[in-house]
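Hi L.,

You mentioned the student needs an example of a multi-chain input paired with its predicted structure. This one should do, with 671 residues in total across all chains.
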Amino acid sequence: MIESLLTAPAATTNTGEPQVILALVLGLLFALGTFLILRRDVVRVVWGVSIISQAANVYLVTMGGLRGSVPIVSHGGGHGTPTDPLVQALVLTAIVIGFGTTAFALVLTLRVYEEHGTIDLSEVSE
Amino acid sequence: MALAHVVVAPLVITLVTAILTLLTRRYGRLQRAISLLGIAGYVLAVAAIAGRVFSIDVLTGASEETATLTYQLSNWPAPFGISLVADALSAFMLVLAAIVSAAALVFSARYVTEYGQRVAYHSLFHFMLTGVTGAFLTGDIFNLFVWFEVMLMPSYVLVVFYGRSEHTRAALQYTVLNLLGSALMLVSIGGLYATTGTLNMADMSRRLTHASQYGIEPAPVLGLSAILLAVFALKAGIVPFQFWVPAAYRAAPAPISAMLAGVTKKVGVYAIVRLVFTVLGGATLADGLELGLSGTSFAAFFGPVLFVMAVGSIFVGGLGAVSRNDLDGVLAYSSIGQVGFIVLAIALAAGADALGTGTDAVRTLALIAVLVYSLNHAIAKSLLFLISGVIQESVGSTRFSALGGLASPRPILAGSFFLGAIALIGIPPLTGFFGKLLVFESAGEALNAGVPLAELALGAALAGAVLTIIYMSRAWNRVFWGSPADPVTHAYRPTVLVAIVAGFSLLVVVLGVGFDPVYRLAETAAHAAADHTGYVEAVAPEVIE
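Structure written out for the whole complex:
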């Protein structure tokens, strides 16, 4: 269902439905990430952070608008307008950065476990 | 043509050095030589940029005219490609970064253990410096995010460098907070792109100045830039985002604490100034601000917000520093308080900006105060952190209970600390005096000009100055006076490290006595910071509809 909405020609309205669905999904993702960050378990905190940064990426894609219906490089056809490709380039950069930081955060979690013998934050911070 | 590449030179030099030091990790001495050579090249490149931007006459220190150097990467025209912009503000901050990082790296080459240096220290240091340089030079708001990440990632590793239990704990807190900050920054940048249709700072500034012409709704821009302000405040470590500061500074090796307090905090300060005065300098809300604030310009919103953050930082930092029982802790809290002074001056400048015409002089004065205070804090605080490193190396602890009576066995070290401390307190003829003087003067002028909250700013600055005197003299008493504690009498004498800090401490005196050129550079940089139309003209982004 989402796919059909995404590919629907959204020239009809400005408040296209994909944006509404994505807004709801984003709200849920940010809420989930925040919930996980507030846990005491370090691994959950790291999950929370990576969920929030992925949510930020999805948000970034949404901000480019999803009104286009054809690829930016046209293959013969060329009916309709493409979606703004800039935000997608930004998201690629952000994903790579997010990958690096998540890897580091996981290694750090391992080191925290090795040093403190626990991943419970209330015990770590004593 | 070759001269135009000078803007990108410091970036390329640090990046190449970082990679070379990574490749030569098997050969410790070669690696160290490359690293030191790299920082020398960096200093020269920054000097070349500053020389061209300020057109300095070396003999008299007079700068007649300033240029804004722009460099379009791969020759893509401005709003499409990535621009590097070295205006007077960027050049001033680069000079600050070059001074502190050169001192910190020379110190590290002696201070960090042989093994630590070979593992990754030098390349991490240079990668961090690359990020700092990129953040100062970029003219693109998404690139600012990328450079922030480049700066932060090595700093996560450097905070956890010693890898024991307290370091992993501090690094975890630091990393998680900054990752959250990065996500927020992305959200804000995405929103700004959607509302303004550009990522280039100059283009954004122009579009927001003529918002109706470009069909931009300014109200969401205000909210989104407030998120951006929160992220920058997190990097600058001001209240209410200050809580990561003490743990991270205590955990990091001394030269890295010097870099974090001296340079990366200033990246946050720089970003706030750039955002409020350049990117949003001409933006207005036609219907006026709500939220109980008067005025129509964005600065009328940022002024009071920054003011609250600044006053909070001055008190949290000052009171925290008074109650610490180790030197690193005092210095870490002190840097929260001192950045509070800098942000207070930014708040005054924004307040003067919001009043509109006739207050340009006050705004410029407050921005000069921001820059002079930043320079003084960068040098004095990094000097003090390096001295704390010498004490750690020599005595084995920076806890007050283990210290005392260091003045008679270590007169040179004590003298350097004394210079750093009185520079922080603000005693003439050191740079700190001029920094404090300018903050007070701009608060007084703002009071005359009728900037709201200016009398409170004056009061907060006074209270903060008193707190600075209290905690620095307490630290001096506990560390250098009194009867020598047992660890002190058995301490060894790190002669080279003491010589490095002593040399660095002379800079505080030299810059204070020869303050006139510093003031001129800061004045030029302050004009550049407030001149958003000049910035737009220099970058000259193509007009796209």
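You could point out the following to them. Chain B touches chain A at residues 142, 145-146, 149, 153, 156-157, 160, 163-165, 168-169, 171-172, 175-176, 179-180, 182-184, 186-187, 189-191, 193-194, 199 (CB under 8 Å). DSSP finds 21 helices and two strands in chain B.

Best wishes,
N.
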